[in-house]
């Protein structure tokens, strides 16, 4: 029986403990480098394990310059959008407040023409 395990960043003590536990069950542990393991896995029926061990075809990844350009473009867009919002939101808020005041003025003038103000809105009991 062959068991394939990924060699993770374990301390030497943990590796020794694991080796000892496996040896109790009469299982021997051998460690192989990725350079040895990859050709073996490519030619065996276990080739689907290649993806699990992080063997990636780096030629399919975009170039570093392209990724950096996309990152800079995305960050520039966000910075420009933030600048736009900071610059135009106070103007928009002022315009909305002016519109609200204009809408309230006819209501206030109609109430003063009748001689008494509108009754206040009822407050719900809580």
TrEMBL record:
This is Large ribosomal subunit protein uL10m. GO terms for cellular component: ribosome. InterPro entries: Ribosomal_uL10-like_sf (IPR043141), Ribosomal_uL10_bac_type (IPR047865). Belongs to the universal ribosomal protein uL10 family. Gene3D superfamilies: 3.30.70.1730. Residues 107-126 are annotated as: Disordered. Keywords: Ribonucleoprotein, Ribosomal protein.
């Amino acid at each position: 029986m062959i068991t394939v395990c990924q060699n993770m960043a374990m301390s030497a003590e943990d590796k020794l403990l694991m080796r000892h536990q496996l040896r109790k069950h009469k299982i021997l542990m051998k460690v192989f480098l990725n350079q040895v393991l990859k050709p073996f896995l490519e030619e065996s029926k276990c080739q689907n394990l290649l993806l699990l061990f992080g063997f990636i075809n780096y030629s399919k990844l975009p170039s570093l310059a392209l990724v950096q350009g996309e990152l800079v473009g995305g960050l520039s867009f966000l910075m420009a959008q933030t600048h736009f919002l900071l610059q135009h939101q106070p103007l928009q808020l002022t315009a909305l407040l002016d519109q609200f005041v204009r809408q309230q003025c006819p209501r206030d003038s109609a109430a003063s023409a009748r001689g008494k103000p509108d009754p206040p809105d009822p407050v719900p009991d809580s």
